[in-house]
Amino acid sequence: MALYDTTRLAAASRGVFRPGRALARLMAALQSWKDRHATQKALSRLSPHELADIGLDHADMDVIAEGRRRTR
Questions:
Q1: HEC string of the chain?
Q2: Is the pTM of this model over 0.90?
Q3: What is the C-alpha separation between 27 and 37, in angstroms, rounded?
Q4: The pLDDT of residue 62
Q5: Using CA atoms, how far apart are residues 25 and 12, in angstroms rounded to an integer?
Q6: From CA 34, how far away is CA 49, in angstroms rounded?
Q7: Phi, psi for residue 18 in degrees, rounded to 5
């Protein structure tokens, strides 16, 4: 008598394109872009004095919008 394990994926099906996963990654990338764009737009509306009040200048806007750390 043979025992078959039906809970595991076949080796050939592991590399199959999964449209749901690709769509989720695309939506996450789009949301990330929208967040960066909104942050940069809001910061660009501030005057140099207002930016200085929060410890930033216009050169920092891209770094902040992308979520990176400033190197100073």
A1: CCCCCCCCCCHHHCCCCCHHHHHHHHHHHHHHHHHHHHHHHHHHCCCHHHHHHCCCCHHHHHHHHHCCCCCC
A2: no
A3: 15
A4: 78
A5: 23
A6: 26
A7: -110, 105
